[in-house]
């Protein structure tokens, strides 16, 4: 990840193997903008605690092709999956120099008991 000094953004290149997955995760301190430059990605995010209870925990998904852009709002659980038989490449810009990352499966299943 490239962190730009005296700035409030980060940039990362993500390389996906065929059928590769960036598993469900969240960035507690940043919105993410993803740009696909190669391959096809199936992406999505889940809403949480919206003002309208009818859209609570709703899954939004989209298939992205080269040149497509998708925004993952700050703090929402999201994922990317390479649906192609070839490699995929994307760049993500994050609205913080320290966006943080919480991988959901790790947070739930790798819990250590308190001493």
Automatic annotation (TrEMBL):
GO CC annotations, alphabetized: apoplast
Residues annotated as binding Mn(2+): 25, 27, 32, 78
Annotated residues for binding of oxalate: 22, 27, 32
Keyword Secreted appears in the UniProt entry: yes
InterPro entries hit by this protein: Cupin_1, Germin, Germin_Mn-BS, RmlC-like_jellyroll, RmlC_Cupin_sf
Family of this protein: Belongs to the germin family.
Protein name: Germin-like protein
